[in-house]
Amino acid sequence: MNLPLLNDLQGVAMDKKESVRFMDRIDARYLFDKSYLEEIIPKIRPHYQLIQIEGKRLFQYDTLYFDTPERVFYYQHLAGKLNRYKIRSCRQVETNEQYFELKSQNNKSFTHVQRIRLDDLSEDISGNGRQLLLQNIPIDVSSLEPAVWIYYHRMMLVNPETRERLKFDLNVWFRWRSQSVAYPNLVIADVQQEKGSASPFKNLMKEKEIREGGISKYCLGLASVEPSLRANAIKPILTRINRFNKC
Known about the structure:
The protein is an alpha+beta fold. It is built from seven helices and eleven strands. The chain has a single domain (4-42, 50-161, 173-245), classed as Hypothetical Protein Pfu-838710-001. It has an eight-stranded antiparallel barrel, surrounded by five helices. The mean pLDDT is 89. Residues 25-225 form the VTC domain. This is VTC domain-containing protein.
């Protein structure tokens, strides 16, 4: 995938220590049509640098999410329940870095991520990944099962003054067994920052009247490949996303 707009941003090498530091953060999310990038990128250029790894600026991720057969995590997210979890395996394609991840959010909307490296992605949870869950979640680990594959391209930016991270996920595609749904015009923007720090991107979203909020890729993916699941709480968001797809 080629985005000429990426050439307009100053590049900076990935700082591994900063990557670890941002396992604890405050998150915010925005959804908008991909055409908006042509206006957004020039306006944020003075404030952000584009992270690059081995000269590459756009990266592909393959992720597999796990849930219970009753889709406990899915319904907790839809209900806005705090003290909740996401469990996934992930591959960063260009570097072939693979890891298993437990992401939790507490009752103060503070996100904490625990991650271990994997030799290969699997639809089973075993070894150190299983131990990580046994030590940290109040759910029977043996009840967890793979729920949906999610594929996307990502560009990552950093504000060198505040260390704020800004991620744009594009070309989002969901698959499970015979079901497959793609959203080629959707951009999912995630802001990751320390509490109280300023965000030029958030200010721009406010200026453009794009409201914070949206839907996690996991919930969108599951609602897309399992249409029998209840999704009343996110129907307005799904309608807006489907409108992007028709543009």
